[in-house]
Amino acid sequence: MPFDTFIQCPWCKTQYPNANVSHCTNCRGTLEYSITSDELGSEPPIAPRVLPTKFKRRIKYTGNVMTLIGIIFTIPFFWTILFPLIGIFCWRRGLRIANDELIPLEQGKATVGEIIDIRKDYTQSLNGESPSIVEFVFKVNGKTYTGNVGNIYESVHLTKKIGDKLWVVYMPEEPEKSSIWPPLV
Ligand SMILES: [Zn+2]
Question: Which keywords does UniProt give here (predicted)?
Fold first, then answer.
């Protein structure tokens, strides 16, 4: 299948027909980890890391169901009271979920973690499709922490499986805040 020879930018989702590109020409994000998807790849750069703008926009708005619902309930119904209240609640919740992912990616410390679960998140859907959640564990000072990343609308279960090792970035002061480097496409 020619599909297998394509790699997809984890940051902006641009697809490339060959695996010889190291950086995305569209958003300049690294593609290194996409090429060798079964391997861990080199350690993430030292924080603070600069994330592609397109990626941040997708996590905060265009790929964030909670934020989109918030905007839909707020802007067209600004002249009512109830809908904007619901809307602003969702909008803020969406941005908080986004920041919980973006801040560790930008500022977190890197360590090796392991995938313990990949499942569908049926509480949300976009165009009739539910996103996946990937749950992982990692150790900080001998203590095991569990983290997860959600809102994944790609077939992550086809490229990743339970038991796979991956880079986790976490906030040393608050290891509950963590994410996967690079983001899962
Ligand atoms: Zn890109």
Answer: Membrane, Transmembrane, Transmembrane helix
Name the residue among 50, 40, 51 with its Cα closest to residue 12: 51
Residue range(s) defining the domain that contains residue 95 = 53-104
Note whether residue 75 is domain-resident. yes
How remote is the CA of residue 35 from the centroid of ligand 1, in Å?
A: 13
d(CA 54, CA 56): 6
Task: Kindly give the distance from the C-alpha atom of residue 15 to the centroid of ligand 1, in angstroms, as a whole number.
Answer: 8
Per-residue pLDDT band at 35 (split at 50, 70, 90): low
Number of domains in the chain: 1
Model confidence over 75-87: pLDDT tens digits?
999 889 999 999 9
* Residue 23 CA from chain centroid, whole number: 18
Distance from the CA of 120 to the center of ligand 1, in angstroms?
Answer: 25
Assigned domain for 159 exists? no
How far is 41 from 33, CA to CA, in rounded Å? Answer: 6
Is 40 inside a domain boundary? no
Measured in Å, residue 8 CA sits from the centre of ligand 1 at: 8
For 81-100, what is the mean pLDDT? 94
- pLDDT surpassing 80 at residue 49: yes
Residue 65: pLDDT over 70: yes
DSSP state of 81: S
Q: Whole-model pTM?
A: 0.83
Question: Is there a domain that residue 39 lies in?
Answer: no
